[in-house]
Amino acid sequence: MTAELLLTNVRPLGGEAIDLLAREGRIAAAGAGLSAGAGATVVDGGGRLLFPGFVDAHAHMDKTLLGLGWYRNEVGPTLIEKIENERALRRERGIDAYAQSSRQARLAIAAGTTHIRTFVDIDTEIGLGGFEGVQRMRDDFREALTIQVVAFPQSGMLARPGTVELMETALKNGAEVVGGLDPSMIDRDPAKHLDVIFGLAERYDADVDIHLHEPGELGAFSVELIAERTRALGWRGRVVISHAICLGGVEEAYLGRLIDLLLENDIVIMSHGPSGLRPVPSIKRLREAGVRMCTGNDGIRDAWGPLNMPDMLLRAFIIAYRNNLRRDDEIEMVLDIATHGGARVMGDAAYGLMPGCRADFVVVDGETHVEAVIERPQRWLVVKGGRIVARGGECLV
Hints:
Elements: E1 4-12, E2 18-23, E3 26-31, E4 41-52, E5 54-59, H1 79-93, H2 97-110, E6 113-121, H3 129-140, E7 146-152, H4 163-172, E8 177-181, H5 190-204, E9 207-211, H6 216-233, E10 239-242, H7 252-264, E11 268-270, H8 283-289, E12 293-294, H9 312-322, H10 328-345, E13 361-364, H11 369-375, E14 379-384, E15 387-391, E16 394-395
Helix pairs in contact: 2-3, 5-6, 9-10
């Protein structure tokens, strides 16, 4: 780790130019006319924009197909078809979770991502292979990325006996979060599915993050059940519902009641501006109501589709576009979700650009931070823990 890094003449989120001094991995000072000690690394930011490190709070790093040649996607439209196709592809290609997640990590770092929450598939076919590969990758990149692992039953949990035991082993061996998936549509027993998920969370003092693709009132019913268990367990502020498609497909009065439940239990919604014909949860409606939010890139060039890339400025653009957010203040809101929103979900209390915060930040060309979302310039400099980890769009790790 560099003892001191002095970054001069940068504009935090498009504001007035300052200098930033990082010492021993933390921001020691921020202001005009700073100086550093002998031997410090000094970088002139040239009036460029300064962002806190981007936070990808919803990834699937174990199963990207990056670097494996083009995969022709002809899978059917249903969720079950996608899951079964992915499992078959994993068998046929022998996907190496360590190599693939490492490829994605380098691209993410080059794009200014400093934090990732990644779901890792755990089922009776692959066992803990994916988890072990991602754990190995996390160790390799520990100085360049903060990575949080979710034990995730992608193929179902109750439907595949033995999966619960594997998830428990993953939690014993370093997974920080318990994942869940469509309690009604996949496992066909929402009460038991959630009982198991929250039981594991209580046993291992773990947060919960549940994929919820269930539409309309079916999904809304799952939201109610999740809120019930959050309240009963005392897990307020420790639960994320990812995707929550249903929040875009119920009438306003019902949505208002669901929002009340989310607020009462401080349940976070992760939305990444999903494609498709169904309405998506309104980012603006939820934020204005006070619901905490985060976002992420979801799967990158995987068996589900080729459209995502590990770039959180691109993700902010997609969310704004999908939600018809055009005003500067609306896009600023999306940027906050892609930075501070995700950092709070990952429990990083030392995140930000103030003295005392961890020295995780990104420097890019541009007139304003909102323009950066539109133009998505190359990341000029990426710093993690006071150490330069990418420069000129190239990962240095």
